[in-house]
Amino acid sequence: MKRRHFSALLLVTGLGVSSATMALKPPTERPVLTVSGKIGLKNAGDKARFDMKMMEALPQHSFTTRTPWYDKPVKFTGPLLADVLAAVKASGSTVSAVAINDYKISIPVADTTRHKVIVARLLDDQPMPVREKGPLFVVYPFDDSSELRSSTYYERSIWQLKALDVQ
């Protein structure tokens, strides 16, 4: 129990959350992700905005997987989507993800823990520019299960992510 509390404290401290007020501090750099909807922690009116430093402060996870978009397996690194949602105290069952070009897809919140979906910020250990599907890319670990190698999950893997709306 002490370890879990300590981990949560590290997560909260790294994101600039004041434990006394439980408010998410605003980004100090250009925001790369906006989270809205059914969230308990906000830093910009009724929304939560994250800059890349805030995304880096979340626990980082990596996996290497084959995708339909690259000709060889690639390594993706970033926080779990579940951790992003936990950081804002999300309480919905669906996340509407929106890309820079306004492509929109619904992702069941259950996917975020069942499949260890990440919000990748690195591709093969390098930041992803917009022209390379960045700066953020929601990715499933496709090689973990044949179930994930389908149009359903490929469509949920949204690149150039700019916003999440929790419903």
Structure, explained:
With 167 residues, this protein is α+β, with helices and mostly antiparallel strands. The chain has helices at residues 2-14, 52-57, 81-87, 109-114, 151-156; strands at 17-18, 23-24, 31-37, 48-51, 60-65, 74-79, 94-99, 104-108, 118-120, 122-123, 126-127, 137-139, 161-166. It has a single domain (2-166), classed as Alpha-Beta Complex (Sulfite Oxidase, Chain A, domain 2). The strands form 4 sheets. Strands 4-3-13-7-8 form a 5-stranded mixed sheet. A 4-stranded antiparallel sheet has the order 5-6-10-11. The chain has a two-stranded antiparallel sheet with strand order 1-2. A hairpin with a 4-residue loop joins strand 1 and strand 2. The longest helix has 13 residues, at 2-14. Residues 1-14 and 17-21 have low confidence and may be disordered.
